[in-house]
Structure formats: structure tokens, C-alpha cells
Amino acid sequence: MTRLHHFENCFSTNDEILSVLNEDESTAVFTFNQTKGRGQYGNIWKVHPNENLAYSLALKTSKVIISDTFLNYYTAIIVRDFLANLTNANAKIKWPNDIILNGKKVCGILIEKKKMNHEEYYIIGIGINVLQSDFSNLPKAGSVLSVTGLSFDLNQFVTEFHQYLISKIEDIDSEEIILNTYNHSLFRKDEISVFQKNNLRQNGIIKNADKNGFLWIDLENDGLQKFFHKEIELLY
């Protein structure tokens, strides 16, 4: 059983969830008007009111049987699969956990650890662009509507998404299956792409992500190397 709370607006669902946390069961919150959402490594995730979804789920770390890296991978897989099934569009995971739909970023994920009442929790924050149409200053971004033409009722969208996420979290795959599925879904895997490293650009091919969270890229000039997030940028 997981309680789902709705906020008319809030700064960040990853913060607000602490105010309604239930120690006896998993807790989730959502809003369609998040004003100060956070992305990976301090990035800002902004949503337009009543056009997009900001959602967070709190899980006790003691009940999660996979590592932090694999929880990150698994969450990305769940969101990718949900959007792919919903839209029949081309959905991929841009390492480490952005969701790319028909070539545009429509979702970001931020997983944090927080302690409440001597209990440690994973706070899984997920932002999905659903109905937004104006991305004039964000050429790499899009929404479910802007890239597929499909429009959804936000309340129905979040209900179906929440139910799907919980069903998958309650029956987590093995780390071997997660890693294989994640790599199968990687954006631009085994394709020649342009990367930027230390302000220099060169071609390269994404080979795979590994169990420790690194991405292996075969670079034209530097050969096969592994990178952690923010050490190299994929240009697309």
C-alpha cells in the first residue's frame, strides 16, 4: 500500500514529501505546479503550471535490495517503459537517467537519500513534461504532447504512472536483468556521436554503462574510456 498525496503547488516534491512521510508504508506526492524543482548535480528543473508532472516517492533504504546505481538504472527503465507503452513512441534512456522521447528530453530523475526519525529513505524524484508546448529556449527538451501530439488528462496520467511505478518497485528485477535492459535502452548506443570533453569535441561511440555507474565510450582520439556523470557531454 502506498499513499499518494497531491499538492496544489510546492517548491520541490523531494522536499515536501518529508512533511507527509508515513513510517508504516511507502509515500508518494505529486504536483502540477512545482516552483523550485532540482535536477542532477544542482541543475534546476522548472515546470509550467498545470502542464507537467512533478512526482516523488519515498522508500526505506532497508527495503531496497539493489544498489544505489541500480536503483537509478531501474527507475529510468520504469519511466522509459511507461512512456513507451503509453505513446508507442521511440523512448530511450540518455545516461544516466534522462528519458528521451522521439529525440527530445521529456523527463529527468533525481534520487536522494534523506533521514527522518532515525530511518533512511530513498527519495525518488521524477519530473515529466506532459502538456507543455513552448520550448523556445530549450531546443533539446520536449513534452509528451510536443513530440507525439498526444494529449492526456494530468490526473489520469499521474494515477496510471503511480500505479505502474509501484507495481514495478514492489517486484524489482535482478541486477543482471536491470543492467542488460538499461544498456538495451541507451540513447545513441553503438552509434557515432559527438562528445565534448574539456571544451574539445570529438566523435565517439557509446559502448555500455557498467554496474558502477560509469559510461564506456570509444573515442576517436582517446580510445575506450569510462566516464562519470558531468565528465563528458553528449552533443545531440
Strand order of the largest sheet: 1-2-5-9-8-7-6
| Helix/strand structural class | alpha+beta
Helix content: 10-25%
Terminal CA distance reads 41 Å
The fraction of residues in strands falls at: 35-45%
**What oligomeric state do the depicted chains represent?**
single chain
Number of strands: 14
Biggest beta sheet summary:
7 strands, mixed
Global geometry = globular
Radius of gyration: 18 Å
pLDDT averaged over residues: 93
* Poorly predicted runs of 5 or more residues: none
Count of alpha and pi helical runs:
5
SSE ordering: EHEEEEHEEEEHHHEEEEE
Write a concise keyword list for the protein shown above:
globular; 236 residues; single chain; five-stranded antiparallel β-sheet
Please give a structural write-up.
The protein has helices at residues 13-16, 68-87, 144-148, 154-169, 175-184; strands at 2-7, 26-31, 37-38, 44-45, 52-60, 91-94, 98-101, 104-116, 119-129, 192-197, 200-209, 215-219, 223-227, 233-235. It contains five helices and 14 strands. Helix 2 (68-87) packs across helix 5. The protein is of the alpha+beta class. The N and C termini lie far apart (41 Å). The model has no long low-confidence stretch (mean pLDDT 93). 23% of the residues lie in helices and 36% in strands. A hairpin with a 5-residue loop joins strand 3 and strand 4.
Brief account:
The protein is an alpha+beta fold and 236 residues long. Helix content is 23%, strand content 36%.
